[in-house]
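Let us practice reading a record.
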Amino acid sequence: MSASHCPHCGLSVTTDTAFCPRCGKPIATAPKPNKSNAGLYVIIGLLLGLCLALLAWIFFSSNKKEDVPPSSTEVKMEETTSTSTLQTSTPTEQTIKPVQMSLWGTIGDSGDVDFEMEGTTGYYSYSRKGSESGRRTLKLESYDEKSGRCILGAYYQGEYIGKFDGIFNNIDNVDDEGEHHYGQSYQGKFLSVKGVEIDFYLYAD
């Protein structure tokens, strides 16, 4: 057991003595810290510090990731996707240049052709070997006014049967005698879904 001294009379006493046996005065001895508890407190403090550091790292890492702008590769992929969507989308009636036709003529060996277009829709019919074809529907697929190329889809009883692919012209000229002539012509090939190609020539004076 360790020894100490009375701060009043100097008598040597043990550390657990509360009052001096010589002078009777209280002996104030500072309690010694518990080494085992102090070590525990140090470990707990270190663990708390590590937890706080980990939480701070996660917080700042997530904020930094949100602020990073998209890479050039991601931007290019988005632009490519948008362009592909536009290229593969079906053109609506508002994006197609309308065309007006009121024609007759021949489709292959068929005669008495009645061919009418009003904007983006129309119809045609013909006779062949004394048999009438019945009215068939026309839908404008594309029309380039500059080149005159016009593609019309053909339908019979709601089913797609082929397309007319040709050059459409609006005739507007003056002859040598000064007379003004107006008219239309549409000629090219009819391409059936069965792979058959048929020449057609349609006109109006």
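A brief commentary: Residues 82 and 123 are 36 Å apart (CA to CA).
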